[in-house]
Each structure stands twice: as C-alpha cells, then as structure tokens.
Amino acid sequence: MSLDYSKWDKLVADLSDEESPDRRRPQVTAFDKPSSVTIPGSGEIKVNCPPSNPAPSRSQPISTKNLKPEEKAINLRGKSFSENGGEFEGYSWSQTGDEVTVSAWIPVETRAKMVSVSVDGESRSFAVKLQGKPIVSGQLAFGVEMDEDFEGGVEWELKDFESRRRVVVTLVKKSPIKGAKVWWNRLLTSEAKIDTRSMKGRKKGSVDTAKLWEEAHRMFRDKVSKQKPTYLDDDGNVVPNYAELLDSKR
Asked: Which residues, at least 6 apart from 240, have a Cβ–Cβ distance to it below 8 Å?
C-alpha cells in the first residue's frame, strides 16, 4: 500500500508562506498609559498599566510619608518596627509600657565602630550617628533611665533584617510613679503627637502620661506640705523640737 504525501507538502508550503521571519519573532510592546489592543479573532482588549514608580532599594530607608496611620505599622514584608510608635525617613520607633525601641536604618556593610549613640539624661538630647553624621537626632519627649554600663548611657546594638541592617537602641522609660506604665505620644519633641488611648498592650482605663506626671507632682507637693521644717545649729547639727522652743518663747 502506497501513501500520498502530496497534501502534506502543500500544507507545509502554505504555512511557510504565511510565517515570515518577522511574524515568528515575539513582539513586545510596553505601554506607559492605559491603552487598547485589537487581536484578530479576539476583539479589542483593554490594557491597564501599573504605576511605573521603581521599588525602593532595600538598603535605603523606606519612606512612609504618604502611608495612612493604619498602614505605617505594616511594612517590610509584614514586620513592624513602629508598633505603638511611628515610622519616619531613616528611622522608626516602637514601645511597650516600659521601653522604647528605636531602629535607625544603615547600609548593610556598616560596622559597630562606625556608629555612635548618645543620650543626655538632663537635657534629653538624643542622637544616632553614622561616621559622625546624624541619622536620628533631637530632644526626647520624655525622660529615660540612664545606665553607665553602656556607651552613650543606653543599650544599643546592630541587627540584620533580611538584607538590611539597623541600629537598635533600647530606651528604658522613666516613670514618675514606681510600677506605673508610661505611654509616649511621640519619640522626639519635633514629631507630631499620636493617640495613646488604644495602643496594643495597654489596659483599658490606663492613665495618660500627662495625667500620671500631674498626679505624681500633686503627691510630691502634698508630701512636702506635711513635712515639718528641720532646723540646724551653726555646726550643722539638727536642733530637735526647735519649732516648739520658739513657740514657748513667744
């Protein structure tokens, strides 16, 4: 039995005539705005172009200038460095009732000897510097406990997150009343205040920081007003019952 291949030769020839080298090469067209494309047999197709803004370099601080407040705490693939705090260009901060954690973003090749952290307990000045240039600097909005065991008066270290590096500074909050939780409404005095009433980890009915300090001052004034004055003689010794002696001579 013999087979007739002539029909297949004709089909291959027809296909070869239709497919020129230009038609066989994929054609890619980039659009910079919404457009429409007409495809034979499929009709018209609308093409929506995504924003062409480049993704930020992961070695640089992520800008959250245009983020909504509820979006600021969700960054860096779901990892939050601004819980109960804020996020700014170059740094972010978070807090619990006892501590504040500041994260200052630096190049991944940075070494500890290139970084300096300083806090002044009296003036509340705060600075994180990279080779002498400030990454974060300003006046802390509230007081912190100083520890002479750490360089700069507070604990700090370098930590990596994926391919980024940050200076992590831990600030222990100073509380006007022993055992009381203090919630900061900002890290630096130059920042806008945030609402501290519904922070994560805060118990309902907790007293605001300002009211806590006001209560502490009231208690101090009340204690001082009830204290009896102490009188000293010329040698610096306490004179007992001096007030009663004065009253008896009047």
From this structure: none
CA dihedral for 160, 172, 147, 136, sign (positive or negative): positive
What count of residues does the chain have? 250
Type of residue found at 179: G
Nearest CA among 81, 93, 101 for reference residue 170: 101
The reported pLDDT for the residue numbered 180 is 80
Sheet (strand 125-130) strand order: 115-119, 125-130, 133-139
Prediction pTM value: 0.54
Rounded to whole angstroms, the Cα distance separating 100 from 116 reads 18
Query: What's the gap between Cα 118 and its chain centre?
Result: 19
DSSP result, 166-201: EEEEEEEBP-SSTT-----S-SBTTSPP---TT-TT
